[in-house]
């Protein structure tokens, strides 16, 4: 019997499912009027009860001031603000997410304004419960002229050798840059070369600035749909004061990036995002976090009822108290890569579990190594098993891990921008 099985009572895991009841519809005009009146009253009450949430966007100046006070004084971001930001990330389109988290607007000599992100705006836009850089709200921007951009002091990433800081040194992040970086982050390691091939239109093993702009116009979701392959869109991207384009191709757009440089960009960006998320839990910079914090990271923004989450976390705390062995950064990183692989993890589990009897600890570690290209530590795998194995039988089933492992990408917006590969009936 494994260590965690001793903590559980054997039995069938309880599953909580919400039941959706449909009201019977009456086609008569009088009943329709009554229903309409009740619906209008309910909607009015809902809007009144949630008026504070919508005032966040309406009071632009106040939100801006509060945001910068939070960053300047290190004050804790409120629960309501985190919840509102979380809903924006998970349920809105990329252009709406960008407008909510972007904090700057470039104003050119003709007065045309372009919404831009700082590097940490980008981190805040993809990180649930982000406490170091909350969103200001759509329409709340600090206006910056081209002349003042050189002297602009941006919030910097604390990660040593930060790729985000390097991009910030060269300018700001445009909407096209945001869409590209989000797509790059959401691409599993094994498909990075596929992403490179999409940009390498001439198949010369290099990506030029013009090729990058050409593909970026189609990647950027705009109001009413995605962009088109036009010279106007390409010219706008190439002429923008983009920190990413300046970093990759130079201000004169004469440089090219190779396949190895593209891989390194993906690795450096992913490593930094992982380090920043790890730092959200490792406040004392010890290099490890508790098993409980690791499980909070896994359960964050899942659709599991709070009571069920509490039971799952209690199992972990029972076996590993606060001052237990802990999860090191390298172990955290390896499992982050597993989660970021998306459907690759799901396909691997289905492949090993065609009999539908679940996978054991070693089989789970094997699947994790397939999708992340790194070996998952036995301790990390065991913590995941304790968290997800409600029945205490030492096996994980696809149904029991879906809400945690398969849906992990959704609150970060990864699924909206990831690469989709289709071969016959198979879609990845």
Could you characterize the architecture of this molecule?
The protein contains 22 helices and eleven strands. With 428 residues, it is mostly helical. The strands form five sheets. It has a three-stranded mixed beta sheet with strand order 2-1-3. A hairpin with a 2-residue loop joins strand 5 and strand 6 (225-226). Helix 11 packs across helix 12 (231-239) and helix 19 (361-372) packs across helix 20. The longest helix is centred in the middle third of the chain and has 23 residues, at 259-281. The protein is globular and about 65 Å long. Residues 1-74 have low confidence and may be disordered.
Question: How would you briefly describe this protein structure?
Answer:
The chain is mostly helical. The protein is 54% helix and 7% strand.
